[in-house]
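Anyone up for a design puzzle?
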């Protein structure tokens, strides 16, 4: 095996769909998490570092939701490469799974677990009490996440079809 092939093999995990979903989901979700802080009650004694840490932890949860959504679509479509043939159906399922998980987590976190509290400025769903801002995130962030993954990994599909 040549040095180039060794390097490609060693860094091959960078071309995994899961890694790319994680990276793009993290980058897009972290920005959203910071922006939506106005809609949550944040104790005044929290430092900037603590708020950033909490947003980072929430973003890691978002990454977990994105990966779960990705794997649900992969299981249904029987391919981890489903993002190469984008359709409204698979992006819709990816988004829908994220929305369902978010409704459940928000209900638990603002209810029995008491992990966070909405500010008065947070609009909520009538029956569920789920904040509309986190739901909006799960309607807006998944499509560009998948678009970036597809764009990033399109070179892998091209490279693997070329003879070495």
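Challenge accepted. My sequence:
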């Amino acid at each position: 095996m040549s040095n180039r092939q060794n390097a490609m093999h060693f860094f091959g995990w960078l071309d995994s769909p899961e890694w790319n979903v994680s990276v793009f989901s993290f980058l897009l979700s972290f920005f959203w998490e910071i922006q939506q802080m106005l809609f949550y009650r944040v104790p005044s004694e929290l430092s900037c570092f603590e708020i950033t840490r909490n947003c980072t932890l929430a973003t890691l949860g978002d990454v977990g939701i994105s990966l779960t959504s990705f794997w649900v679509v992969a299981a249904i479509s029987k391919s981890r490469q489903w993002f190469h043939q984008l359709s409204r159906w698979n992006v819709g399922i990816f988004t829908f799974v994220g929305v369902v998980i978010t409704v459940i987590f928000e209900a638990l976190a603002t209810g029995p677990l008491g992990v966070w509290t909405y500010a008065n400025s947070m609009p909520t769903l009538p029956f569920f009490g789920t904040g509309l801002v986190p739901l909006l995130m799960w309607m807006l962030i998944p499509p560009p996440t998948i678009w970036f993954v597809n764009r990033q990994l399109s070179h892998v599909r091209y490279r693997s079809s070329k003879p070495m």
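A detail worth pointing out: Residues 11 and 64 are 22 Å apart (CA to CA).
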